C-alpha cells in the first residue's frame, strides 16, 4: 500500500489575510456622497421652483394698446416649476386686472345710462378682449372674476334704470297734477267749484295725489299729498 505524506509538526497552516472593515463600512463613504448629491438636487430643485415663481410674477405686462397680457409659461404644462409659474402669473394678472375691471366697468356702467343692452354689449367686448389675451391655463379664474364683476355692475345699471324710470314716472304724474290744477282754476273762475267738470277734475287730481303718496318709491309724503 502506498504511504501518504505526513504533515510534520513544524509546518504551519495559514489563512488569507482578512480586511479589518466590513462591507457596510466600505460602502459608507459612497452612501454619504450619494446622500449629499441627493440633498443638493433637492436644494437646486427648490431653488428652480422659486425662480419659476418669480418669473411668473413678472410675466404680466401691457401691450402697446394697454391690454394686459401674460408671457407663455416656459416650463411646459406639468411639474412643480410649471405650477409655480402659473400660480404666480395668475396672482399677478388678477391683482392688476381687478383695478382695470373696477375702473373700466364703472365707466361702462355710467356710459350705459341705465340701458342694460348697451352695458351688456360694451362689457362683453371688454371681457372678450381680456380673455383672448390670457393664456389658456389662466382663463378659468380670469373668466370667473369678469363674470362676478360684470354681474355686480349689471345689477347697478338695472337699479339705475329703475331709479330713472321712477323719477320719470313721478315727474310725469306731477306734471299731470300741475295741468289739472290749471284746468280746475280755469273752471272755478268760469263756473265755480260745484260744476260737474270741476268735480271730475278734482277727482282725477285726488287720485293722482293718492298714487303719489301710496308709492314708497316716490319722494312724496302724506302731508304733501
Question: Can you walk through the features of this model?
Answer:
- The protein has 225 residues and is an all-alpha fold.
- 70% of the residues lie in helices and 3% in strands.
- The protein is built from five helices and two strands; from the N terminus they run H-E-E-H-H-H-H.
- Strands 1-2 form a two-stranded antiparallel ribbon.
- Strand 1 (60-62) and strand 2 form a beta hairpin.
- The model has no long low-confidence stretch (mean pLDDT 78).
Number of helices: 5
Relative helix content = 55-70%
Point out poorly predicted stretches. Answer: none
Oligomer: single chain
Instruction: Please state how the strands of the largest beta sheet are arranged side by side.
Output: 1-2
Gross morphology is rod-shaped
Radius of gyration: 44 Å
| Overall pLDDT | 78
* N→C terminal distance: 152 Å
Structural class of the secondary structure composition? mainly alpha
| Share in β-strands | under 5%
Kindly state the number of beta strands.
2
Order of helices and strands: HEEHHHH
| Sheet with most strands | 2 strands, antiparallel
Short description:
With 225 residues, the protein is mainly α. The protein is built from five helices and two strands.
Keywords summarizing the entry:
mainly alpha; 225 residues; single chain; 5 helices
Map the helices and strands:
Elements: H1 23-57, E1 60-62, E2 68-70, H2 80-112, H3 116-132, H4 139-191, H5 196-214
Antiparallel strand pairs: 1-2
